[in-house]
Amino acid sequence: MPVDRNRTGVGGMKGFTVVWLGQIISVLASSMAGFALTIWMYQQTRSTTAMAIMQVCFILPFLLLSPIAGAMVDRYNRKLMMMISDFTAILSTVGILILHATGNLEFWHMYIASVINGIGNTFQWPAYSAAISTMVSKEQYSRANGMMSLVDAGPAVLSPLLAGALLPVIGLTGVLIIDVVTFLFAIAALLVVVVPQPPRTLEGQQGRGSLWRESVYGFQYIFKRPGLLGLQMVFFFGNLFFGIAYTALTPMILDRTNDNTTIFATVQTFGAIGGILGGVLMSTWKGFKKRVNGVLAGWMFSGLVFTLLGFGRTVWVWAPVMALSSIIGAMINTSNQAIWQSKVAPDAQGRVFSARRLIAWFTQPIAPLIGGVLADYALEPAMQNADSLLAAWFTALVGSGPGAGKAILFIVCGFASAVVGLVGFSVQRIRTVETTLPDHDALEKAEPAAVS
């Protein structure tokens, strides 16, 4: 891997591990704060739609700024981009902290904080994803991606328990202070490592020019490669159905358990444990011989498992189902990430990865609103009316009472997600993307000879 000889610090897999440790500690504190604020938000509003709007506020900056962020990641220093994303997250947390400490926090402030967090995330994901390609060798992509999946899942195991234990002692203000301190720790970890800039390739230079031209290059790259485009469309539709249902997860559990936050925390913890197990599996195992099988089969099984959240009515169903779903999710994401890191030249990954994520997440502002409106204004009222046709069809499957209408979303959307994976297997260009599209390192060796 290329190393910047003009800089000192920890490099390679050791350097990546230092960054990873900083992130996992920071995300632990952020998950604690997020757990407490999610409960606070729902108790303030009692509205699935209000919580959906908060998700939309997080996603919208990504949709608007993602192409520009990807171009900046490829154009400028990637370590700097990673640090900027962390600083942005600090701003929103500090704002919420001050408002709560002074007794002025209102639910709509969470929308503003979500927008600021969304801006930081827009830069963070392409920067960290592209940095993996320059910090570790190609053979370690799956391992590194498995470790990164632990950043999402690992802290969530402890965060509900720690938040529940700390809130009575230090309150929400204290939890938010911890979050700010750990952000600074993550930035300090970045300061001591080497994040090499990628070598210049012909593929990466093709989209160079103005910021606008570089911003649209990622989309041009993907649309010229039908296999990669098809792979992203699998995520587009899969995320649509998952997003519609997932909006109702917190309200459904709280409604069906009379606001039992312990059960809600248990379900979240089991989901995080599953994510850890999936991350450990993918970080110690080289993965599927054909990684695309891990993606497509993963969507099929994940969708079928997801339906069980709707059929279930107790923590004894929800908790293990969340764990299994998270294990499969880690398999899907690490397999997909390794495919893209192998195919796309490192100096083009910022632009391509931002475009790729924008395609996959394009439905995210719409999905929570669809889920929230369906749950609050259609499914829940219908299931409370014993004479309705919907109640006649589904009461035997999901029961009655608060939360029954929301459960229907999980059943319908879970089956739809499974169909998405099945359709992906039926499309040859998606199924054979790994063999029909050369790896970027093989392409780099062939291109100079072709030019000369």
Summarize the structure.
The chain is mainly α. Helix content is 82%, strand content 0%.
Number of E-type strands = 0
User: What's the helix count?
Assistant: 19
CATH architecture label name: Up-down Bundle
- Which blocks of ≥5 consecutive residues have pLDDT under 50? 1-8, 445-452
Oligomer: single chain
C-alpha geometry: globular
Q: Main β-sheet: number of strands, strand sense, barrel status?
A: none
CATH superfamily: MFS general substrate transporter like domains
Measured between the Cα atoms of the first and last residue, the distance is 25 Å
- Radius of gyration equals 22 Å
Topology at a glance:
Elements: H1 12-45, H2 48-75, H3 78-101, H4 109-135, H5 141-191, H6 202-205, H7 211-223, H8 226-246, H9 249-256, H10 261-284, H11 291-311, H12 315-343, H13 349-361, H14 366-384, H15 389-398, H16 404-426, H17 428-431, H18 433-436, H19 440-451
